Amino acid sequence: MRRKVAPDSSAMAAVGGGEGATEVEQAQLSTAIRNGEDLGPFVRRAFASGRPEALLSSLHHFARSKEVEIEDVCKAHYQDFMGAVDDLRSLLSDVDSLKSALADSNAAVQSTVGPLLAALDAYLEARSVADNLTAAIRAARLCSRLFALLARANEHLAADRLYLALRAIAAAERDLLQAAPHPTIRRMLVSLIPAVHAHVERKIFEEFSDWMVQIRVASRHLGQIAIDRASAARQRQAEEQGIRSGSTITTSIFRDHPYSLRLEEEEDDWSGDDSDDLAAALSDGEASILDLIPLYRAHHIHTTLGLEERFRRYYFENRKLQLTSDFQVSSLTPFLESHQIFFAQIVGFFIVEDRILCTGGGLIAPPDVDALWEIAITKMVSVLEDQFSRMQTANHFLLIKDYVSLLGVTLHRYCYSVDPLLDVLSKHRDKYHDLLLSDCRRQVSETLAADKFEQMLMKTEFEYSKNVLSFQIQTSEITPAFPYVASFSSSVPDLCVICRSFIKDSISFMSHGGQLDIYPIVKKYLERLLGEVVDGSILHHIESRSLGVSQAMQVAANMVILEQACNFLFRHAAQLSGIPLRIAEKVRREFPLKKSRIATEELLLGLLRKKINDFMMLTDSISWMADSPPPSGNEYSNEVIIYLETLVSTALQILPIQVLRRILQGVLTYISNTIMGLFLSDTVKRFNLNAVMGIDVDLKRFESFADDQSRLFTDSDDFVANELKLALLEARQLVNLLMCNNPENFLNPVITERSYNKLNYKKVITVTEKFRESSDRLFGTFGTRGARQNPKQKSLDALIKRLKDAS
């Protein structure tokens, strides 16, 4: 860009001398020219004003002033150029003198070193001959060494020493290929080395293929041995724990919990590792097929060939294909028959993989083993889900579960996570128990159907121990004399056996499955067994089967023993679950068979009521308007008392005291209600005091019977004085009201609460209306007009009137 300069004063003066141009316009024109700006506006302005000559004159003057400046600059530059030319001429003369001096020096050197150069040529020729001889000797040595290596490689190949052959070939390739003395030898080596590599690779591949076939069979055998060792260790541990804790079964936990405690005994049981499993398999005659040397040899050879990564991929893919083929479950063979082989194959597979992982020198990496295990665990979960969903037998469930748990224990020792398998078992726990409950329901029904509900006779101490002591249902710590008649029937120990077997099967299913506390689960299913199966079956049996009084008594007696047996079953479940009894007994439990117990007692009461009704038919002979009270009561009461005394003597041999008390209380209550029903019956239109006095005698006989029987229950923990007598209280209060001289006292709240608290106002109105004099009822006030009214009748009339007004 051009540099802007200040306006020239001389130019401005020249322009100012123009025709009519102002100084300002001349200064602007000068500045524009110096700065290289466009002069168009000045030209247009000059022509517009009609003075172009002044503009031209200013421009000519500016040009002349610049020519002078140019001449001054050129003169200065020319003087500098002339000085430089003078310096160059002086330099050329110095160069010519130096050139002549160099030529003289070169001539002197050539004349001096001529003989030396001739001697040097002779030396170089001799040195060339020596080098050729040395190269020939070296080539001969290389050829000798090469042929020795090749001969050694041939010997190793012939003796199947592949690695040594490869080492010989590698030495020849490394040391002699590039130094080969002749191209022919080099071409021979270039073609020979790949051929040897291909032969070795083909040979080792055949050996590896044979090993892959053999290891599949060996894995199955190895898995079976490992699972058998786990089973033996579990059984040994259970026996030792049973000796220490009295048949208490604890569960082996092999879930991946953040904290775990291993006892010294457990460490002794599982002190072995995979080498122990392999040693057990080798000692069983499987040394030839459990040999891992072919695998390690193939890996080493491929590593030597530089093909380690390819061989690792090949090994992983083939083992994955083998694992996939192991998962093929035959549809022709039931899974129950083939599940041991199926799981043993998988266990052996991963024991071998764990050994290879530890000793294979990087043949397989931990992520690859984890990937194989993920495939295996996913497939096993799928197979178990499918098989469990179709399984309809609890025993089959338990067999497969036990083998799966042994698989988990075995592989857990090799640090394989088996939690998904345990989750499958937990997921199907309800189905297993539903099948187990179904089996128990069938057994309970068969047991109840076969029971004749007669007291069980035991002839030997062995029978007593088997049927009584083993379930802790004895009534005394003293061994009885034999033959011994028990208070229960044959179904009670049979039901206990079924329930105990259920507990054992339930704990067996949940044991060794990673559950820390199984007692709450066992307790839940035991409550279902007792509450749904046993209670429901007994209830159905009672409702569907026609039972007599003695059979109903026996069922009621059975319920008392079963209540004692239920407590034993819960304690037994806690003990087998490893829970201290003091903890299990802290929880108060209701009797699980409560519905069937109530139904049994209701059935017995119903049968007794029917029998009582037969005797109460004799009340038809009661004279309700008798002229005098019967001195010994009515006939029906005599028959009822005789029957009740016979009933009690029989029941004492069958029923426990607490049940007999409830039954007698129910019978007496029914008798009281029946007497109340006689007074309220429509067939009794009226009655007099003599009839009431007869009923009073009957009630006294019943009360005397109640007092006599109460002595049987004084030793009971929940005994209440006059409990049986209170069952007759409603009838007694009604008779007392009818026999009192002032019935109107019934309206006194204090007296009512103390003496008539069981009576209902409406019932009192109905009964007292029948108790009025017949003349008053039939003829109104005409028959008694002018006569003095009885004070008791007057009080009774006032009572009736006030009760009607109140209602």
Topology:
Blueprint lengths: L8 H8 L6 H12 L5 H10 L2 H107 L3 H14 L7 H63 L18 H6 L4 H10 L9 H12 L3 H19 L8 H25 L6 H25 L3 H19 L6 H9 L1 H22 L6 E2 L2 H7 L16 E2 L5 H20 L8 H26 L4 H28 L4 H4 L9 H23 L18 H17 L5 H24 L8 H22 L12 H4 L2 H11 L9 H7 L5 H10 L3 H6 L11 H16 L1
Antiparallel strand pairs: 1-2
What does this structure look like?
The chain has 807 residues and is mostly helical. It contains 30 helices and two strands. The protein has helices at residues 9-16, 23-34, 40-49, 52-158, 162-175, 183-245, 264-269, 274-283, 293-304, 308-326, 335-359, 366-390, 394-412, 419-427, 429-450, 461-467, 491-510, 519-544, 549-576, 581-584, 594-616, 635-651, 657-680, 689-710, 723-726, 729-739, 749-755, 761-770, 774-779, 791-806, and strands spanning 457-458, 484-485. Strands 1-2 form a two-stranded antiparallel ribbon. Helix 1 (9-16) runs antiparallel to helix 4 and helix 17 (491-510) packs parallel to helix 19 (549-576). The radius of gyration is 62 Å and the shape is elongated.
Summarize the structure.
By secondary structure, the protein is mostly helical. It is 73% helix and 0% strand. Strands 1-2 form a two-stranded antiparallel ribbon.
Largest sheet geometry: 2 strands, antiparallel
Distance between the termini: 131 Å
Low-pLDDT stretches: 1-21, 243-253, 256-275, 774-787
H/I helix tally: 30
User: What level of helicity do the residues show?
Assistant: over 70%
The number of strands is 2
- Spatial order of the strands forming the largest sheet: 1-2
Radius of gyration: 62 Å
How would you classify the helix and strand content by structural class?
mainly alpha
Beta-strand percentage range? under 5%
Q: What is the average per-residue confidence, as pLDDT, rounded to a whole number?
A: 79
What overall geometry do the principal axes of the alpha carbons give? elongated
